[in-house]
Automatic annotation (TrEMBL):
GO terms for molecular function: ATP binding; ATP hydrolysis activity; transmembrane transporter activity. Residues 5-235 form the ABC transporter domain. One of its GO terms (biological process) is putrescine transport. SUPFAM superfamilies: MOP-like (SSF50331), P-loop containing nucleoside triphosphate hydrolases (SSF52540). One of its GO terms (cellular component) is ATP-binding cassette (ABC) transporter complex. InterPro entries: AAA+_ATPase, ABC_SmlMolc_Importer, ABC_transporter-like_ATP-bd, ABC_transporter-like_CS, Mo/tungstate-bd_C_term_dom, P-loop_NTPase, Transp-assoc_OB_typ2. Pfam families: ABC_tran, TOBE_2. Keywords: ATP-binding, Nucleotide-binding, Transport. This is ABC transporter ATP-binding protein. It comes from the Bacteria.
Length: 347
């Protein structure tokens, strides 16, 4: 992968608050990249630094090898689509899309051609004369996207691009964003707190915690092989069990269980995904545990079952609908999982 953008030891403070802590990151050409994290993790600050709306206190921001940390926003081949969409209410759709072109001095004939192409790309051909108050939320989002794409940026920044949309529209618009990214060939960098959104759309995901990168990689890799307790708990809310490794097993005293698996000798915790645990007949497989059902919550295609193992340990189990009705509260159940599903976590 050829790097388009590289952040080197980027640090940013707001008074006593450290927003970014010597952060390093690389984004490839034509890549759909997601910055994922909770509130205060630093993801929005990093996006604003890339856009040029904030200046780092130290470090370098290299675009094609040139440091642009001090370059003003208008001089960067970067566009940003804001979470609020920031459309001008007194302007038509066409005028909103044309705004950047006019500022850049693009001639009218070329501007008209690019506006038409951008609106067609986002499915809004024929909406040129409408104003923002005449549009739905999804249509406003598309106008904001067209306004960014019409500038033909090499890097497009998306701040919570699907946050204002309802569930059905979010999914459809997400696929459309992915298709547009492939069509334009631009690199997209999306900030989101929604892990499903990040995992579904991005080529790679960077999970931020306290201004640092907790883990970066392809979605499946960081989901199935988290690098830390934080990553395991944030992505998919994995079960994290503390204990000690001994001869390819991992003993969890609080849970009263011993797990078989390829466990390095220095392992002090393991992760188990809820969907990897099955409610099964007693004694099935090398990894089993007995417990009492604390609670059950229906979630559509599965039910979340909380199982108390005793000693203060509780396992979250995703019981699929095709597996039959979930057990009742208070039921005595046996859980099992495969050795390959035991993920060692570093100290």
């Amino acid at each position: 992968m050829t790097a388009l953008l590289r952040a080197e030891a980027i640090t940013k403070r707001f008074g006593p608050t450290l927003a970014l802590d010597a952060l390093d990151l690389e984004i490839g050409q034509g890549e759909f990249f997601a910055l994922l994290g909770g509130s205060g993790s630093g993801k929005s600050t990093l996006l604003r630094i890339i856009a040029g709306f904030e200046t780092p206190d130290s470090g370098r921001l290299l675009l094609d090898g040139t440091d642009i940390a001090a370059t003003p926003p208008w001089a960067r081949p970067v566009n940003m689509m804001f979470q609020s969409y920031a459309l001008f209410p007194h302007m038509t759709v066409a005028d909103n899309v044309a705004y950047g072109l006019r500022r850049a001095g693009v001639k009218k004939a070329e501007a008209a051609s690019r506006i038409a192409a951008a609106l067609a790309m986002v499915g809004l051909a024929g909406f040129e004369r409408r104003r923002p108050h005449q549009l739905s939320g999804g249509q406003k989002q598309r106008v904001a996207l067209a306004r960014s794409l019409v500038m033909r940026p090499r890097l497009l920044l998306l701040d919570e691009p699907l946050g204002a949309l309802d569930a059905g529209l979010r999914e459809r618009t997400g696929f459309e964003l992915r298709a547009l990214q492939r069509e334009t060939g631009a690199a997209f960098v999306m900030v989101t707190h929604d892990q499903e959104e990040a995992l579904a759309l991005a080529d790679r995901v960077a999970l931020l915690d306290g201004g640092r990168i907790a883990q970066v990689g392809p979605p499946r890799e960081i989901y199935e092989r988290p690098a830390s307790r934080f990553v395991a708990r944030f992505l998919g809310a994995a079960n994290v069990l503390e204990g000690r490794a001994a001869q390819d097993r991992f003993d969890c005293p609080d849970a009263g269980i011993s797990c078989a698996g390829a466990i390095p000798a220095d392992t002090v915790a393991i992760a188990l995904r809820p969907e990897r645990i099955r409610i099964a007949a007693a004694g099935e497989g090398p990894n089993t545990a007995r417990g009492i059902v604390q609670d059950v919550a229906f979630r559509g295609d599965d039910s979340l079952v909380l199982v108390d193992l005793g000693g203060g340990a509780t396992l979250r189990v995703a019981h699929p609908e095709e597996g039959g009705p979930p057990p009742d509260r208070g039921a005595d159940v046996t859980l099992c999982w495969e050795a390959a599903d035991v993920v060692p976590l570093p100290s």
